[in-house]
Design goal:
Elements: E1 3-8, E2 14-18, E3 38-41
Antiparallel strand pairs: 1-2, 1-3
Length: 66
């Protein structure tokens, strides 16, 4: 199950929830104030500049050819 990020329109709390894809658009309850007036937001992980090092192509293949 993916993790989705939400923001509460009542108290401005930003939080994450592990939810199924089919429930991602349904209202999520804020853990701070219990409001369901929340909105799904784009994940900061998703929107990072891509300079995280995860996609680095400088990995070693190990061993030698000879």
């Amino acid at each position: 199950m993916p993790i989705y990020e939400y923001i509460c329109n009542a108290c401005s709390e930003k939080f994450s929830q592990l939810r199924s894809m089919s429930e991602s658009e349904k209202a999520a309850e804020c853990p701070r104030c219990s409001s369901i007036n929340t909105k799904k937001v784009m994940s900061s992980f998703c929107c990072s500049g891509g300079d995280s090092g995860f996609a680095s192509s400088g990995h070693s293949h190990g061993g030698g050819g000879g």
